[in-house]
């Protein structure tokens, strides 16, 4: 019987080893360990043994059963693992195929530039002021020291609606309106918006374009404050290593008036096609608020002074992104707008 | 303004300063130099030639074979095609090896079998602008004066050994519209002196006043009129140097008399006019305003109708010039003129400006008068012209000046303290340095009680207030010296207004939803200006549009947005999703201005989802766009407040258009373009929306408060209904809500079917209803009870409830 048991064990172990899958292994389990299997039979036959042999034999059968069971379980685990691996392998995909596109739009490049400028000045304590695009001649010209017949009106041929109403030619009327609203109190504002001039649309002109102007009015505002503000702005917008320089210029609403150049951000000042070999790029116009403008806005030029500056987001975007034709901003070609999605830096 | 440096050095010493350096200095101190044009650049081996013989080329009708003495032992044979070439002329010859502008190289050549050793040049070939070339030489070679020596360098003779600075003047610096003005500026920059032109001349004993009487009827418009008479002039070509200078300044030489008036105009910035005394005919000059309907033929041959506020120079009977703008043809100097009246006058800037604008006539004279000429140089300029006419045209100047003078020539007095200057600039410029700058500018001043009392020279019409002196000091001291500081003031909270913040959220939301931001033009055609308008009002039209296409302000953003969609689809971008935030203009608002109302609009066409390799493409439809608008309402806290109903609008599909309502008021529209509109715009199915954004952003919303997350489970029940097609989902929902009691938390449509499997005219619609009591767990019984009530109500309204 002992011999029989030993043989049974070897047979079982061999069957376990050669089982190729879970199903056949389960067959092995039923065959050897099942209720009708040979080991069970042996245990059932124990009663026929002499009483003194029973404990020894019982232990032996249990030992064989334990060994076979353990082997079976270990084999079972291995086969299951293999099965899972096969399934996973079958499920594998081509990870180099493109992902499902997430469809989102993005800002127009001008909005991107304008918001960047707004955010810089907001961080410096400025408010964002807005005003109408159809404006009174008074706010567009007269309140800005441009009385009727002023030669500087030549510079900005305008779209008139009536003798006294026109499409604003700059965002400066917002400055005049803000001074009226602030009633003599100090303030700092930035005014973005659309403006219009009688120009034929071509690569460098557009009858509609955008502007951002800034105005600071208070007591003892100095030209050095203007320079310091513009210097910070230039560094923030075009890079910390930018230098600025001021050149005398003329605007009817400021005195003194200046143009601000920044050192070329492409070549760093050594001269290239962006800066037309000069090392400098003209970015904006600025100046100290003309006393007539302060006076008309209800501020006493003996007490108050201020500075103002203005720039064109189109020009800044063209310089910054290398855009060659201003008309791109107004054709709304998705192949153009879609390029201004990503973050920079 | 073009500044010849050769000419400029008549008045100020610029020795030792390179043109580029001078240009940089002028630019940095206030007048922008646009270009530095070295006129001799690229020119080489160009000499005077003497045409000894000139014969027709045997093989070519239009060519001549010339033998030209170019200063060498043997004359050169040169083939010349110019119609005006002739034996005996002194001409400009580009010899073999010569270089001409544009990199043209002259080589020996054979023309129709004949050798040509060089080229006889026109002025254009030497780089002159055709507009300044004297008419006689405009379509041929240039002929030099008889005393030019063969072989001599022709560049100096033509004034091409010169550099010209092109100034881009700001409107305030009209002083720099003259060589003298630029000389003062240059002198201030370089700390050098100014040498004034010679005005002295001999005068005949006979007084001018014996030949000319003067009457000024409009002294406000013409406070100064000075006339000189020069007789026995010989009209002819000007000397080479004068022609060269005029051409360098961009003026076409005409004859010595006119050239002299133009020369003095450029030199002093004082426009002059020369009348033919005999053609004037009356011995009288009378200045008056035009009569109603009066007409004059100007020098350019054009007949011009005048208005009563236009100032005229007349001979006492008829107009001979439009004052300060242009002379008349009837009194023009011509080849046979012997006696000339030189007019030197001051005309009111505003009057000249108005006249020149209205007549569309801008001249070198009017641009100077309208900015205000130097009151103290009017008479002097007349003297200068008389001296030049005596010198260059052999004229005899009659003694004295026929003069009317009521002009205020006092300089403007400006008082300013050094402290004020330094405070405004944020600098500490020493007093002595300010004094030095005023000296360099040649501004007469006195220092009284620590203040500068300055008499601003009348040539500088731009100087009148203390701030102007601040600028003068600063620009010559150097803007680089200004320190960089920040304003010292009460610190103010900056930031966006609530409205501006919400607008930014709207943009970000719409972009997140898949729309790209467009910016289109506000001006459109009058015809298109009201298409798709939510609310129409009188149109706002330009007085003088540049084209009908851009004549009227828009009342809807959609027409241009749709144009942009077509632009894209026509360029292989078949799926387009654009939005715009911008103003529409509704006429007759407050203060005579149109009301500007900010709108948001969108237009979407093509595929909305899918499009990758996984398929699943779904074209955009009404509900896609409605979903975007509903999402926007949620973004703005207006969910529930914003409602929709069947709407209508021209250009939109009558069955696929919804009005968007806020508190019962239409604030927007969503719809598919009408098929005919789509066809006209060459678009496939396109869905649009437009919202009165301002109205939405200004709507006050409830404060954002947290609602407790439910602690108890909700129960869902579905209802599937079969109803006539015309029954709207909203109607059914209203019935459901009205009968559900307060346990109903949410209704969701989860299926709609109308098709083959349905009976004609019917559709099936299925709702999922969620019941919830935040305080307890609901029982099946109470939900069933509510559900039964709903079913009963729906059945009563004719819906079949499917099970």
Automatic annotation (TrEMBL), chain A:
<dbReference type="GO" id="GO:0000049">
    <property type="term" value="F:tRNA binding"/>
</dbReference>
<dbReference type="GO" id="GO:0016740">
    <property type="term" value="F:transferase activity"/>
</dbReference>
<keyword id="KW-0648">Protein biosynthesis</keyword>
<keyword id="KW-0436">Ligase</keyword>
<dbReference type="Pfam" id="PF02912">
    <property type="entry name" value="Phe_tRNA-synt_N"/>
</dbReference>
<keyword id="KW-0963">Cytoplasm</keyword>
<comment type="subunit">
    <text>Tetramer of two alpha and two beta subunits.</text>
</comment>
<dbReference type="GO" id="GO:0140096">
    <property type="term" value="F:catalytic activity, acting on a protein"/>
</dbReference>
<keyword id="KW-0067">ATP-binding</keyword>
<keyword id="KW-0460">Magnesium</keyword>
<dbReference type="GO" id="GO:0005524">
    <property type="term" value="F:ATP binding"/>
</dbReference>
<dbReference type="InterPro" id="IPR004529">
    <property type="entry name" value="Phe-tRNA-synth_IIc_asu"/>
</dbReference>
<dbReference type="GO" id="GO:0006432">
    <property type="term" value="P:phenylalanyl-tRNA aminoacylation"/>
</dbReference>
<dbReference type="InterPro" id="IPR002319">
    <property type="entry name" value="Phenylalanyl-tRNA_Synthase"/>
</dbReference>
<comment type="similarity">
    <text>Belongs to the class-II aminoacyl-tRNA synthetase family. Phe-tRNA synthetase alpha subunit type 1 subfamily.</text>
</comment>
<feature type="domain" description="Aminoacyl-transfer RNA synthetases class-II family profile">
    <location>
        <begin position="111"/>
        <end position="319"/>
    </location>
</feature>
<keyword id="KW-0547">Nucleotide-binding</keyword>
<keyword id="KW-0030">Aminoacyl-tRNA synthetase</keyword>
<dbReference type="InterPro" id="IPR004188">
    <property type="entry name" value="Phe-tRNA_ligase_II_N"/>
</dbReference>
<dbReference type="InterPro" id="IPR010978">
    <property type="entry name" value="tRNA-bd_arm"/>
</dbReference>
<dbReference type="InterPro" id="IPR045864">
    <property type="entry name" value="aa-tRNA-synth_II/BPL/LPL"/>
</dbReference>
<dbReference type="InterPro" id="IPR006195">
    <property type="entry name" value="aa-tRNA-synth_II"/>
</dbReference>
UniProtKB/TrEMBL annotation, chain B:
<feature type="domain" description="TRNA-binding">
    <location>
        <begin position="40"/>
        <end position="155"/>
    </location>
</feature>
<keyword id="KW-0648">Protein biosynthesis</keyword>
<keyword id="KW-0067">ATP-binding</keyword>
<dbReference type="InterPro" id="IPR020825">
    <property type="entry name" value="Phe-tRNA_synthase-like_B3/B4"/>
</dbReference>
<dbReference type="InterPro" id="IPR036690">
    <property type="entry name" value="Fdx_antiC-bd_sf"/>
</dbReference>
<dbReference type="GO" id="GO:0000049">
    <property type="term" value="F:tRNA binding"/>
</dbReference>
<feature type="binding site">
    <location>
        <position position="471"/>
    </location>
    <ligand>
        <name>Mg(2+)</name>
    </ligand>
</feature>
<feature type="binding site">
    <location>
        <position position="462"/>
    </location>
    <ligand>
        <name>Mg(2+)</name>
    </ligand>
</feature>
<dbReference type="InterPro" id="IPR041616">
    <property type="entry name" value="PheRS_beta_core"/>
</dbReference>
<keyword id="KW-0460">Magnesium</keyword>
<keyword id="KW-0436">Ligase</keyword>
<keyword id="KW-0694">RNA-binding</keyword>
<dbReference type="InterPro" id="IPR005147">
    <property type="entry name" value="tRNA_synthase_B5-dom"/>
</dbReference>
<dbReference type="GO" id="GO:0009328">
    <property type="term" value="C:phenylalanine-tRNA ligase complex"/>
</dbReference>
<dbReference type="Pfam" id="PF01588">
    <property type="entry name" value="tRNA_bind"/>
</dbReference>
<dbReference type="InterPro" id="IPR004532">
    <property type="entry name" value="Phe-tRNA-ligase_IIc_bsu_bact"/>
</dbReference>
<keyword id="KW-0547">Nucleotide-binding</keyword>
<dbReference type="Pfam" id="PF03484">
    <property type="entry name" value="B5"/>
</dbReference>
<feature type="domain" description="B5">
    <location>
        <begin position="409"/>
        <end position="484"/>
    </location>
</feature>
<keyword id="KW-0479">Metal-binding</keyword>
<dbReference type="GO" id="GO:0016740">
    <property type="term" value="F:transferase activity"/>
</dbReference>
<dbReference type="InterPro" id="IPR045864">
    <property type="entry name" value="aa-tRNA-synth_II/BPL/LPL"/>
</dbReference>
């Amino acid at each position: 019987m002992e011999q029989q048991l030993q043989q049974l064990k070897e047979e079982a172990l061999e069957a376990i080893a050669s089982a190729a899958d879970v199903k056949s292994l389960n067959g092995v389990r039923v065959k050897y360990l099942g209720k009708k299997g040979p080991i069970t039979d042996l245990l059932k036959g124990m009663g026929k043994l002499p009483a003194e042999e029973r404990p020894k034999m019982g232990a032996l059968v249990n030992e064989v059963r334990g060994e076979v069971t353990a082997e079976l379980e270990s084999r079972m685990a291995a086969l299951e693992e293999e099965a899972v691996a096969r399934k996973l392998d079958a499920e594998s995909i081509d990870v180099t195929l493109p992902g499902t596109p997430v469809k989102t739009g993005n800002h127009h490049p001008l909005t991107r530039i304008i918001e960047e400028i707004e955010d810089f000045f907001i961080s410096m304590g400025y408010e964002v002021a807005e005003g109408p695009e159809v404006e009174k001649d008074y706010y567009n010209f007269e309140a800005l020291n441009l009385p009727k017949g002023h030669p500087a009106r030549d510079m900005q041929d305008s779209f008139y609606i009536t003798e006294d109403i026109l499409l604003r030619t700059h965002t400066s009327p917002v400055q005049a309106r803000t001074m009226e609203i602030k009633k003599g109190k100090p303030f700092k504002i930035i005014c973005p918006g659309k403006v219009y001039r009688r120009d034929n649309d071509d690569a460098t002109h557009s009858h509609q374009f955008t502007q951002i102007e800034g105005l600071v009015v208070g007591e003892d505002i100095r030209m050095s404050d203007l320079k310091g503000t513009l210097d910070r702005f230039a560094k923030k917008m075009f890079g910390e290593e930018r230098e600025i320089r001021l050149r005398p210029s003329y605007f009817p609403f400021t005195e003194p008036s200046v143009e601000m150049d920044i050192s070329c951000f492409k070549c760093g000042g050594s001269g290239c096609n962006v800066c037309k070999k000069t090392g400098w790029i003209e970015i904006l116009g600025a100046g100290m608020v003309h006393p007539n403008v302060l006076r008309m806005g209800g501020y006493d030029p003996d007490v108050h002074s201020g500075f103002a500056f203005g720039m064109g987001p189109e020009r800044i975007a063209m310089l910054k992104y290398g855009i060659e034709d201003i008309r791109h901003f107004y054709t709304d070609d998705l192949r153009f707008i879609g390029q201004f999605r990503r973050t920079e830096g | 303004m073009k500044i010849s440096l050769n000419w400029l050095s008549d008045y100020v010493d610029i020795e030792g300063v390179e043109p580029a350096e001078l240009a940089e200095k002028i630019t940095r101190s206030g007048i922008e130099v646009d270009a530095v044009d070295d006129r001799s650049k690229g020119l080489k081996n160009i000499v005077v030639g003497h045409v000894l013989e000139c014969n027709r080329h045997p093989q070519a009708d239009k060519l001549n074979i010339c033998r030209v003495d170019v200063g060498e032992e043997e004359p050169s044979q040169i083939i010349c095609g110019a119609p005006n070439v002739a034996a005996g002329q002194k001409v400009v010859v580009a010899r073999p090896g010569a270089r001409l502008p544009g990199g043209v190289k002259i080589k020996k050549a054979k023309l129709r079998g004949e050798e040509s050793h060089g080229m006889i040049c026109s002025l254009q070939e030497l780089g002159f602008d055709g507009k300044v070339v004297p008419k006689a030489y405009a379509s041929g070679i240039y002929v030099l004066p008889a005393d030019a020596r063969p072989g001599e360098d022709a560049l100096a003779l033509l004034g091409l050994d010169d550099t010209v600075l092109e100034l881009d003047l700001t409107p305030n610096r009209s002083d720099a519209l003259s060589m003298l003005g630029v000389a003062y500026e240059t002198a201030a920059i370089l700390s050098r002196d100014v040498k004034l032109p010679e005005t002295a001349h001999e005068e005949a004993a006979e007084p001018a006043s014996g030949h000319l009487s003067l009457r000024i009827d409009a002294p406000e418009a013409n406070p100064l009129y000075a006339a000189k008479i020069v007789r026995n002039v010989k009209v002819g070509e000007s000397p080479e140097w004068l022609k060269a200078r005029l051409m360098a300044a961009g003026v076409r030489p005409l004859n010595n008399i006119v050239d002299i008036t133009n020369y003095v105009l450029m030199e002093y910035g004082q426009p002059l006019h020369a009348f033919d005394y005999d053609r004037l005919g009356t011995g009288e000059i009378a200045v008056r305003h035009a009569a109603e309907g009066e007409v004059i033929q100007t020098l350019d041959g054009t007949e011009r109708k005048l208005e009563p506020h236009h100032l005229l120079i007349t001979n006492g009977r008829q107009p001979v010039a439009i004052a300060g703008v242009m002379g008349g043809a009837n009194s023009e100097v011509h080849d046979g003129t012997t006696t000339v009246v030189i007019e030197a006058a001051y005309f009111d800037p505003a009057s000249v400006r108005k006249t020149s604008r209205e007549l569309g006539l801008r001249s070198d004279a009017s641009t100077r008068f309208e900015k205000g000429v130097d009151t103290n140089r009017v008479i002097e300029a007349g003297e200068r012209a008389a001296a030049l006419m005596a010198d260059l045209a052999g004229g005899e100047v009659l003694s004295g000046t026929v003069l009317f003078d009521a002009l205020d020539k006092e300089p403007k007095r400006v008082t300013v303290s050094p402290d004020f200057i330094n405070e405004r600039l944020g600098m500490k410029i020493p007093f002595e340095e300010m004094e030095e700058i005023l000296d360099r500018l040649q501004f007469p001043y006195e220092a009284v009680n620590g203040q500068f009392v300055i008499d601003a020279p009348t040539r500088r019409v731009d100087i009148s207030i203390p701030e102007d002196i601040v600028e003068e000091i600063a620009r010559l001291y150097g803007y680089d010296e200004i320190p960089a500081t920040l304003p010292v003031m009460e610190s103010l909270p900056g930031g966006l207004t609530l409205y501006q913040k919400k607008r930014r959220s709207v943009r970000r939301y719409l972009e997140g939803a898949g729309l790209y931001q467009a910016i289109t033009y506000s001006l459109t055609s009058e015809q298109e200006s009201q298409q798709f308008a939510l609310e129409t009002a009188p149109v706002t039209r330009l007085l003088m549009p540049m084209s009908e296409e851009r004549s009227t302000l828009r009342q809807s953003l959609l027409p241009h947005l749709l144009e942009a969609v077509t632009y894209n689809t026509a360029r292989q971008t078949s799926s387009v999703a654009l939005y715009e935030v911008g103003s529409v203009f509704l006429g007759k608002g407050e203060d005579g201005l149109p009301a500007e109302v900010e709108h948001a609009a969108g237009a979407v066409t093509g595929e909305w989802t899918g499009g990758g390799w996984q398929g699943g493409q779904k074209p955009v439809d009404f509900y896609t766009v409605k979903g975007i608008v509903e999402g926007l309402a949620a973004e703005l806290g207006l969910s529930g407040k914003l409602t929709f109903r069947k709407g209508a609008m021209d250009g939109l599909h009558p069955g696929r258009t919804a009005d968007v309502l806020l508190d019962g008021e239409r604030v927007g529209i969503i719809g598919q373009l009408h098929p005919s509109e789509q066809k006209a715009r060459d678009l496939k199915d396109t869905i649009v929306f437009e919202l009165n954004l301002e109205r939405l952003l200004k709507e006050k919303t409830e404060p954002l408060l947290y609602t407790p997350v439910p602690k108890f489970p909700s129960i869902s029940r579905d209802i599937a209904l079969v109803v006539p097609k015309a029954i709207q989902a909203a109607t059914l929902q209203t019935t459901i809500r009205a009968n559900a009691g307060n346990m109903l938390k949410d209704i969701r449509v989860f299926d709609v079917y109308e098709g083959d499997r349905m009976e004609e005219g019917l559709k099936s619609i299925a709702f999922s209803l969620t019941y919830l009591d935040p305080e307890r767990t609901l029982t099946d019984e109470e939900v069933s009870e509510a559900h039964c009530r709903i079913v009963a109500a729906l059945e009563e309204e004719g819906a079949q409830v499917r099970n």
